[in-house]
C-alpha cells in the first residue's frame, strides 16, 4: 500500500491587448458586466503524463479566466478504456492562502500517484486550483469550486464524465470548500465567472479530511491568521452572519448527499471536534454521514512516528476510495 499510495510572442500580446480593450469598451458602453473571456492561448498547451495501470493525467486545463486574476487550472486523471465514468474532484488545502493541486500531504509523497490510484479504480479525477484569500476572500474560493464543477459537467463528453455521479474531496481548507459545496449547492451563481450556468454544481458524495465546518465553534487560538484573511475580518470581530455564512454546518439538510469526515485525534490546527460536531449535526437530521477518527495523528496525518503518519495517510485514502466506490459506482 505504501508504494501504491505514495509510490505564448507578439501575436498573443496583441490578442491580450485587444481583449482588454474590448472588455473595457463593453464596460463603458453597456450597463451589464461582460462575460469572462476565454483563457488566452498557451504555447505550451496541455501536457499529458502517464502513470501505472493505464492512467494518464492532462495538466493545466484552464477552467476559469476572470479579468484581473490569474487563470484557474485543473489537472485531469483518466484511466484506459472508453465510456463515461464517475468524476471525483479534489480540492487542496493550505489555509486558503497557499497550496497546490499536486502538493503532497506528507513528506516524500508523490500525491499525483494517489490521485492516479483513485482514477485507476474507474474514475475521472480532477484536481483543481482556486483563488487564495489574499487575492480575494470568501466567497471567492467557493465560487471557483462551483465554476470548476460546472466546467467539468459542460465538458463531460470531451472528458468521458458521467455527470450523474460526481464526488468531491478536500483536505483542511479544501475540506471546508468541498463539504460546503455538498451542503450548499444549486444556488444562483453570484461569482465573477458566469460561464456554464446551465450546469448544476451539486455533487453526489463528499469527503472532508480534517476540515473546519463551524467557524463559530472553531477555537480562536487555532490558525487565526489564515482565518482572518479568508473571512476578511479579524477573529472576534466577524459578525455572526459572516461566521454562519462560511460554515457548512449552517446549511445542512436531510437531503444532503452522503458525506464522509475523517480526522485525527491530535490535530492542533483544526481540532477533531469540528468533524465530530458536523457529523453529530448531520446525524441529528438523519442526513447520511460517516465519521472516521484516526488516533494519535494530527493535521495532515502528522505524527512524530513517520510510520504512523504513512499508515494514517494510507488508511484515510483507502477509506475514502471505498466510500466513493460505494456511492458513485453503478451497483
What would you note in describing this structure?
The protein has one domain (about 1-330): 3-Layer(aba) Sandwich (Rossmann fold), CATH 3.40.50.1820. A 9-stranded mixed β-sheet has the order 1-2-3-5-4-6-7-8-9, with helices on both faces. The chain is an alpha/beta fold. The chain is built from 10 helices and 9 strands. Helix 4 (about 140-155) crosses helix 6.
Notable features of this structure?
alpha/beta, disordered N terminus, Rossmann fold, about 325 residues, globular, 9-stranded mixed sheet, 10 helices
CATH-level-4 superfamily name: Alpha/Beta hydrolase fold, catalytic domain
Helicity, as a percent range: 25-40%
Q: How would you sum up the global shape?
A: globular
| Unreliable sequence segments | 1-33
What is the assembly state of the chains in this entry? single chain
Q: What can be said about the biggest beta sheet? A: 9 strands, mixed
**Spatial ordering of strands, largest sheet:** 1-2-3-5-4-6-7-8-9
Order of helices and strands: HHEEEEHEHHEHEHHEHEH
Q: What is the average per-residue confidence, as pLDDT, rounded to a whole number?
A: 89
CATH topology: Rossmann fold
Amino acid at each position: 500500500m505504501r508504494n501504491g499510495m505514495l509510490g505564448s510572442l507578439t501575436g498573443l500580446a496583441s490578442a491580450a491587448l485587444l481583449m482588454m480593450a474590448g472588455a473595457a469598451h463593453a464596460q463603458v458602453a453597456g450597463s451589464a458586466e461582460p462575460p469572462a473571456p476565454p483563457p488566452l492561448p498557451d504555447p505550451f498547451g496541455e501536457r499529458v503524463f502517464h502513470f501505472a495501470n493505464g492512467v494518464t493525467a492532462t495538466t493545466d486545463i484552464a477552467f476559469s479566466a476572470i479579468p484581473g486574476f490569474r487563470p484557474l487550472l485543473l489537472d485531469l486523471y483518466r484511466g484506459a478504456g472508453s465510456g463515461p465514468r464517475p468524476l471525483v474532484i479534489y480540492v487542496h488545502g493550505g489555509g486558503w492562502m497557499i497550496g497546490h493541486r499536486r502538493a503532497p500531504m506528507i513528506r516524500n509523497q508523490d500525491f499525483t500517484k494517489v490521485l492516479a490510484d483513485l482514477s485507476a479504480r474507474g474514475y475521472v479525477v480532477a484536481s483543481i486550483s482556486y483563488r487564495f484569500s489574499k487575492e480575494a476572500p470568501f466567497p471567492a474560493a467557493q465560487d471557483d469550486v462551483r465554476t470548476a464543477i460546472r466546467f467539468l459537467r459542460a465538458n463531460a463528453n470531451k472528458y468521458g464524465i458521467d455527470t450523474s455521479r460526481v464526488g468531491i474531496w478536500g483536505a483542511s481548507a479544501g475540506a471546508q470548500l468541498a463539504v460546503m459545496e455538498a451542503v450548499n449547492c444549486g444556488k444562483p451563481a453570484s461569482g465573477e465567472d458566469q460561464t456554464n450556468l446551465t450546469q448544476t454544481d451539486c455533487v453526489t458524495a463528499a469527503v472532508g479530511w480534517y476540515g473546519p465546518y463551524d467557524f463559530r465553534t472553531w477555537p480562536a487560538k487555532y490558525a487565526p491568521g489564515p482565518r482572518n484573511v479568508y473571512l476578511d475580518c479579524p477573529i472576534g470581530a466577524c459578525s455572526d452572519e459572516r461566521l454562519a455564512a462560511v460554515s457548512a454546518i449552517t446549511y445542512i439538510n436531510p437531503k444532503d448527499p452522503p458525506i464522509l469526515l475523517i480526522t485525527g485525534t491530535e490535530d492542533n490546527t483544526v481540532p477533531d471536534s469540528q468533524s465530530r460536531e458536523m457529523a453529530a449535526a448531520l446525524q441529528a437530521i438523519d442526513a447520511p454521514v460517516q465519521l472516521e477518527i484516526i488516533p494519535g495523528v494530527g493535521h495532515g496525518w502528522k505524527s512524530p512516528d513517520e510510520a504512523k503518519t504513512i499508515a494514517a495517510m494510507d488508511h484515510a485514502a483507502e477509506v475514502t476510495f471505498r466510500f466513493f466506490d460505494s456511492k458513485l459506482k453503478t451497483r
